[in-house]
Amino acid sequence: MVLTSFICTILTLALWLKAGDKMASIVCYAVLFGFWSGAAISLTPVCISQVCATQDYGKRNGTTFTIVSIGTLTGIPIAGVIQERDGGGGYGGLIVFGGVLYFAATVAFTLARGVCSGWKLTTKF
What we know:
mainly alpha
């Protein structure tokens, strides 16, 4: 999860933000981001199962996605305000917003991994 969220951060802030109107860059971003963000979405249940007992999996999964729903519910209106601030035509503010949130997720996943399994890179669950 640390790797996938970090790569999504880099792709968003480096490739998409700099793409402008270049269709080739936007297509490259869409393909690469689709691959890496899809990996992050599919790894979420695996990560949940690594930190809870089998009998608690349903509760932990439900709690996780409840927290995610709050971010989704509030993120859309925030994105609308950012879009209005940019005059409705530019996406630069939204790209930075998304990239910064991906970076925050990278930090959170890094901290969670360090707390749960140790700070060595070779440590496995």
